[in-house]
Design goal:
By secondary structure, the chain is mainly beta. It is built from two helices and 13 strands; from the N terminus they run H-E-E-E-E-E-E-E-E-E-E-E-E-E-H. A hairpin with a 5-residue loop joins strand 8 and strand 9.
Amino acid sequence: MRAFAIAALLALASCGSSEKTEAPAAKPSPAGPRLGDVALDAPLRATDNALTWSLELAPGSITLTRFAGRGTEGSVTQFYPVSPQADGKKAVWTTKDVAGEPVTITFTGARCIEGGDPAIERPLTADIRIGDKQLHGCAGERPADGLNSQPPVAPGNVAADSAADEATNAH
Protein backbone atom coordinates (compact mmCIF):
# COMPACT_ATOMS: atom_id res chain seq x y z
CA MET A 1 0.00 0.00 0.00
CA ARG A 2 2.78 2.36 0.94
CA ALA A 3 4.62 1.64 -2.33
CA PHE A 4 1.43 2.37 -4.27
CA ALA A 5 1.05 5.79 -2.54
CA ILE A 6 4.64 6.73 -3.30
CA ALA A 7 4.25 5.64 -6.93
CA ALA A 8 1.06 7.72 -7.26
CA LEU A 9 2.84 10.80 -5.87
CA LEU A 10 5.77 10.31 -8.25
CA ALA A 11 3.36 9.93 -11.19
CA LEU A 12 1.58 13.14 -10.27
CA ALA A 13 4.86 14.99 -9.86
CA SER A 14 6.01 13.94 -13.31
CA CYS A 15 2.83 15.17 -15.00
CA GLY A 16 3.51 18.34 -16.94
CA SER A 17 1.18 21.20 -17.40
CA SER A 18 0.81 23.25 -20.56
CA GLU A 19 0.08 26.36 -18.47
CA LYS A 20 2.86 28.90 -18.29
CA THR A 21 3.91 29.90 -14.88
CA GLU A 22 4.74 33.52 -14.31
CA ALA A 23 8.04 34.47 -12.82
CA PRO A 24 7.63 35.77 -9.31
CA ALA A 25 7.34 39.52 -9.13
CA ALA A 26 10.57 41.24 -8.17
CA LYS A 27 10.46 42.51 -4.65
CA PRO A 28 11.95 45.92 -3.96
CA SER A 29 15.28 45.71 -2.23
CA PRO A 30 15.09 46.45 1.47
CA ALA A 31 15.95 49.97 2.52
CA GLY A 32 19.38 50.40 4.03
CA PRO A 33 19.94 51.45 7.62
CA ARG A 34 18.19 54.67 8.66
CA LEU A 35 18.22 57.02 11.58
CA GLY A 36 14.91 58.85 11.48
CA ASP A 37 14.56 60.27 7.96
CA VAL A 38 18.29 60.02 7.23
CA ALA A 39 19.64 57.12 5.15
CA LEU A 40 22.90 55.97 6.72
CA ASP A 41 24.18 54.43 3.49
CA ALA A 42 24.10 57.84 1.73
CA PRO A 43 26.90 60.44 1.95
CA LEU A 44 26.71 62.19 5.34
CA ARG A 45 28.42 65.20 6.88
CA ALA A 46 28.96 66.32 10.46
CA THR A 47 30.37 69.73 11.48
CA ASP A 48 30.72 71.79 14.62
CA ASN A 49 29.13 75.20 15.15
CA ALA A 50 32.42 77.06 14.64
CA LEU A 51 33.21 75.11 11.45
CA THR A 52 36.62 74.08 12.77
CA TRP A 53 36.14 70.52 11.50
CA SER A 54 34.04 68.51 9.08
CA LEU A 55 33.50 64.75 9.03
CA GLU A 56 32.48 63.18 5.72
CA LEU A 57 31.03 59.65 5.74
CA ALA A 58 30.29 57.91 2.46
CA PRO A 59 30.20 54.26 1.44
CA GLY A 60 33.87 53.21 1.45
CA SER A 61 35.34 56.31 3.13
CA ILE A 62 35.37 58.29 6.37
CA THR A 63 37.36 61.54 6.37
CA LEU A 64 37.88 64.15 9.07
CA THR A 65 39.05 67.59 7.94
CA ARG A 66 40.30 70.07 10.52
CA PHE A 67 40.37 73.60 9.17
CA ALA A 68 43.26 75.99 9.79
CA GLY A 69 42.62 78.91 12.11
CA ARG A 70 43.00 80.10 15.67
CA GLY A 71 46.61 79.00 15.83
CA THR A 72 46.03 75.54 14.40
CA GLU A 73 47.04 74.03 11.09
CA GLY A 74 44.54 72.27 8.87
CA SER A 75 44.72 68.50 8.46
CA VAL A 76 42.91 65.63 6.78
CA THR A 77 42.63 62.28 8.56
CA GLN A 78 41.30 59.09 7.00
CA PHE A 79 39.57 56.45 9.11
CA TYR A 80 39.08 52.84 8.10
CA PRO A 81 35.62 52.62 6.47
CA VAL A 82 33.07 50.60 8.40
CA SER A 83 29.30 50.26 8.37
CA PRO A 84 27.30 51.69 11.24
CA GLN A 85 25.52 49.71 13.90
CA ALA A 86 22.07 51.33 14.10
CA ASP A 87 19.22 50.72 16.51
CA GLY A 88 16.70 53.38 15.43
CA LYS A 89 17.80 55.92 18.06
CA LYS A 90 21.50 56.10 17.28
CA ALA A 91 24.08 54.90 14.79
CA VAL A 92 27.64 54.03 15.82
CA TRP A 93 30.69 53.60 13.59
CA THR A 94 33.56 51.92 15.48
CA THR A 95 36.83 52.20 13.60
CA LYS A 96 40.39 53.54 13.91
CA ASP A 97 42.71 55.92 12.14
CA VAL A 98 45.77 54.78 10.18
CA ALA A 99 47.94 55.17 13.31
CA GLY A 100 45.69 52.67 15.14
CA GLU A 101 43.99 55.24 17.39
CA PRO A 102 40.44 54.05 18.25
CA VAL A 103 37.63 56.14 16.75
CA THR A 104 33.94 56.06 17.67
CA ILE A 105 31.45 58.13 15.69
CA THR A 106 27.95 58.37 17.16
CA PHE A 107 24.98 60.03 15.49
CA THR A 108 21.76 60.34 17.48
CA GLY A 109 18.32 61.10 16.12
CA ALA A 110 18.07 64.45 17.94
CA ARG A 111 17.71 67.65 15.90
CA CYS A 112 20.70 69.97 16.17
CA ILE A 113 21.15 73.67 15.36
CA GLU A 114 24.43 74.95 13.94
CA GLY A 115 24.97 78.48 15.20
CA GLY A 116 25.64 81.27 12.77
CA ASP A 117 23.71 83.69 10.69
CA PRO A 118 21.55 82.11 9.51
CA ALA A 119 21.45 79.18 11.89
CA ILE A 120 21.24 75.80 10.14
CA GLU A 121 19.11 72.98 11.53
CA ARG A 122 20.38 69.43 11.01
CA PRO A 123 18.43 66.23 11.73
CA LEU A 124 21.14 64.51 13.79
CA THR A 125 23.55 65.22 16.64
CA ALA A 126 27.15 64.03 16.19
CA ASP A 127 29.73 62.95 18.78
CA ILE A 128 33.16 61.82 17.59
CA ARG A 129 35.75 60.31 19.92
CA ILE A 130 39.31 59.92 18.63
CA GLY A 131 41.44 58.41 21.37
CA ASP A 132 40.89 60.72 24.36
CA LYS A 133 39.68 63.69 22.26
CA GLN A 134 36.01 64.38 21.68
CA LEU A 135 34.22 66.50 19.06
CA HIS A 136 30.56 67.54 19.18
CA GLY A 137 28.44 68.85 16.32
CA CYS A 138 25.46 68.45 14.03
CA ALA A 139 25.00 65.96 11.19
CA GLY A 140 22.81 65.12 8.23
CA GLU A 141 22.92 64.17 4.59
CA ARG A 142 25.75 65.80 2.67
CA PRO A 143 24.32 68.39 0.27
CA ALA A 144 24.52 67.40 -3.39
CA ASP A 145 26.56 70.53 -4.15
CA GLY A 146 29.11 69.49 -1.54
CA LEU A 147 28.77 72.82 0.25
CA ASN A 148 27.56 73.29 3.79
CA SER A 149 24.31 74.73 2.51
CA GLN A 150 20.94 75.12 4.19
CA PRO A 151 18.31 72.55 3.17
CA PRO A 152 15.59 73.97 0.86
CA VAL A 153 13.22 76.39 2.57
CA ALA A 154 9.70 75.08 3.13
CA PRO A 155 6.93 77.21 1.61
CA GLY A 156 5.44 79.65 4.05
CA ASN A 157 8.65 80.33 6.01
CA VAL A 158 8.10 84.04 6.48
CA ALA A 159 11.61 84.88 7.72
CA ALA A 160 13.29 83.05 4.86
CA ASP A 161 10.82 84.41 2.28
CA SER A 162 11.39 88.02 3.40
CA ALA A 163 15.18 87.53 3.37
CA ALA A 164 14.95 86.16 -0.20
CA ASP A 165 12.76 89.13 -1.18
CA GLU A 166 15.30 91.57 0.28
CA ALA A 167 18.13 89.90 -1.63
CA THR A 168 16.12 90.10 -4.87
CA ASN A 169 15.24 93.76 -4.32
CA ALA A 170 18.87 94.65 -3.58
CA HIS A 171 19.88 93.94 -7.19
